[in-house]
Amino acid sequence: MKQLVNDIQMNYEDVGNGPALLLIHGFPLDHTLWTYQLESLRNEYRLVAPDLRGHGKSQAPPGPYRMEQMAKDLCDLIDLLKIERAVLVGLSMGGYIAFAFWRLYLHRVRALVLADTRAAADTPQGRQNRQEMAQRVQDQGTSTVVEGMLPKLLSPNTLQNKPKVVAHARRMMTNTPATGVIGALQGMAERPDATLTLSTITVPTLIVVGADDAITPPAEAEAMRETILSAHGEQLPGDKVHSVIIPDAGHLTPLENPPAFNQALREFLASLPG
Ligand code: MLT
Question: Which SS3 state, helix, strand or coil, does residue 62 take?
Answer without folding.
Answer: coil
